[in-house]
Design brief:
OB fold (Dihydrolipoamide Acetyltransferase, E2P), five-stranded mixed β-barrel, 93 residues, mainly beta, 6 strands
């Protein structure tokens, strides 16, 4: 699989712009958001970590701890953590 042309390191990501990151899933947790289930997945690369949150889901097939994942979307800062809401994703080998 080839690198995405818009790929950035997590530490270099600029909030509130469309970005693409890749990394390894290091944490997964189900958490309620506004009364709905949601899945929060923390992705880490060599420079930092970011969280992707999918609302209305408790699991996503193929997304497991240790799996490499590409995430694309607009991230915001929640505290000091970069967070995507309902981003598109690609499972990586």
């Amino acid at each position: 699989m080839t690198a995405h042309p818009d790929l950035v390191e997590i530490a270099s990501a600029i909030p509130r712009r469309r970005i693409v990151i890749e990394g390894q899933v290091v944490r997964m947790r189900a958490r309620p958001t506004s009364g709905q289930p949601s899945l929060a997945v923390t992705i880490s690369d060599a420079t930092g970590s970011a969280t992707a949150v999918w609302t209305g889901r408790r699991a996503i097939g193929g997304v497991t701890l240790g799996r490499r994942l590409r995430v694309e979307g607009v991230a915001t800062l929640v505290g000091s953590q970069l967070e995507f809401t309902n981003p598109s994703y690609t499972l990586l080998p």
